[in-house]
Amino acid sequence: MKICLWVSMVLSVGLFTPAKAVDLRLLLTETKQSGGYQVGDAAAGFRLKGTDGSMVSLNDFNNAKGVIVIFTSNHCPFAKAYEDRIIALNNKFASQGYPVIAINPSDPATHQDDTFEKMKERAASKGYGYPYLADDAQQVAKAFGAGRTPQVYILQKNGAKFTVRYIGMIDDNPQDPAGVTKLYADEAVSNLLSGKPVVTTITKPVGCAIKWKN
């Protein structure tokens, strides 16, 4: 009953329009993943293959002030809606020490748009200025506790550790960039750069459920 009411509310505010139809199952399906990092935890290192063919690890960013890790995908309508905003985040903050690292944990057997070749095509066509990594084994997504695409984890470099400072949405309007009122990721990084605490540390991500391999 509660789910039906929630769906009615979502439809009434126009989140799903004919031009951007989304299978509600992508949003409502519960994922098997649980746990993962909490705010204040230190993230473990990882090493994944990027669309340029190189292997990229978290340790490659030891000279950065932090990183903006975003779990995303090619097929997801929400990820597509946020793509330009992800590019904008990197354009704004990479030069200030907080580059974006995009990771695709989606099973290409479920969505052919998420094959490595399609990832390469997408990165090239959009001119990503950040690494786009394939999490084939889905181990990094599981370690982080990611459940949806897109989902953001902002990590601050503290000594030898990358500490989680924010988890959740990029902003508060998946559908319309012009209607955004809360720039969660932007505000979190801006606060960290200013030496201030992150005010909003957790938000509930809205996006496509990650399909876990059996």
From TrEMBL:
**CDD domains in alphabetical order:** PRX_like1 (cd02969)
Tell me which PROSITE patterns the record gives. Answer: THIOREDOXIN_2
* Signal peptide region: 1-21
Q: Does the keyword Zinc-finger apply?
A: no
What's the protein name?
A: Thioredoxin family protein
Q: Where is the Thioredoxin domain?
A: 37-194
Please provide the record's keywords in A-Z order: Signal
Q: Which GO terms describe its molecular function?
A: antioxidant activity; oxidoreductase activity
